[in-house]
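subagent[fold] <- orchestrator: predict structure for attached chain, return tokens only, no commentary.
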Amino acid sequence: MINDVLREYEASMRKATEALKHHLATIRTGRASSGMVEHLQVEAYGTHMPLNQLANISVPESRLIVIQPFDNGMIKIIEKAIQNSDLSINPSNDGRVIRLAVPQLTEERRREMVKMVRHRVEEVKISVRNQRRDAIDDLKQLEEEKLISEDDLHRGQERIQQLTERTSKDLDQIGSEKEAEVLAV
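subagent[fold] -> orchestrator:
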């Protein structure tokens, strides 16, 4: 029973880590990255779809993203979605492909991006701590119902704390790497 709680908690830690990585990939740096646009929502065919389901996205140069729609009729719709996003990049097209020239970030904008990264990392760490509390509550409930002993409860709490500390270090590492990427000129 303890192992079930631990497995569930560990799975939620992995999901939190992956969610942070996914979110940070969308934060703009001075370099082009397909992650900046691939999950951008585009209203197409009567529904909202991520851009990567409507087009091939490539990064041929460090400051250029090329988007080639599967259907050339989608170019204007994709352009509009990019313009309405918070990317602050103006798209250009030649009728077949859309090009996004990623401009150099100003120092002030880099600092704002670093604040965003730190804020997002902290949000995920708070989520991890809340999940830790819930997992410990689950163990305490099992102990109250006499399904596990008090010693098992303490061992389970220690393992949950170790998982939390390891996850927190991983999240800090991911955040630090993204900060360095944002600050790189």
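orchestrator: received. Logging for downstream: The first strand starts at residue 41 and ends at 44. Residues 107-144 form the longest helix (38 residues).
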